Amino acid sequence: FSRLCNAVIESHGFVVHDEKKLNSIALMIQPRIVLTTGLWRELVIFFEGPKRYDEKALKKVWKGKTKSLLLSVVDILSHESEASIDLLKNAMKKIAEDSGLSLGALMGPLRVVIVGSLSGPDLFLLIKTLGAREVIKRIQFALRAIK
Questions:
Q1: 123's torsion region: left (phi>0), alpha (psi -120 to 50) or beta?
Q2: What is the pTM of this model?
Q3: Domains along the chain?
Q4: Sign (positive/negative) of CA torsion 122, 98, 137, 128?
């Protein structure tokens, strides 16, 4: 399956030099694939940030504190760029709790700014795979784009 993913990735002009990363991506998306024709739709989130955001998803998750929550995530990621998944989960829980919200109140908007919708692979694995720099870039882009 990794080889098939790699062929699709390369056909879209991208190269994954790290076989471990390629295998990680393949494992994350494999349960989501019904037809191989939908492979790029699942893979694209690892190579390009969203060009637009699902309006229904935004209406559902974008609340008054969303911008400040996402800025807190940027702060955490800029200081903990190599954080483990457990550390990321705990940091996100703390951000939400400090704002008097549930973790879900943070995870929904975070997923939308990273992938453009409320669907996708495990969010913490995705963040770890994309890397702090890319996630920060996507959050900052979304904060400018979403009014």
A1: alpha
A2: 0.89
A3: 1-48 (no CATH), 51-147 (1.10.10.350)
A4: negative
* DSSP per-residue codes, the chain: -HHHHHHHHHHTT-----HHHHHHHHHHHGGG-SSGGGHHHHHGGGTS--SS--HHHHHHH--TTHHHHHHHHHHHHHH-TT--HHHHHHHHHHHHHHTT--HHHHHHHHHHHHHSSS-SS-HHHHHHHH-HHHHHHHHHHHHHH--
Q: Is the pLDDT of residue 70 over 80?
A: yes
| Predicted local confidence at residue 139, as pLDDT | 97
Phi and psi at residue 113, to the nearest 5°: -70, -25
- Give the phi and the psi of residue 138 in degrees, each rounded to 5: -70, -40
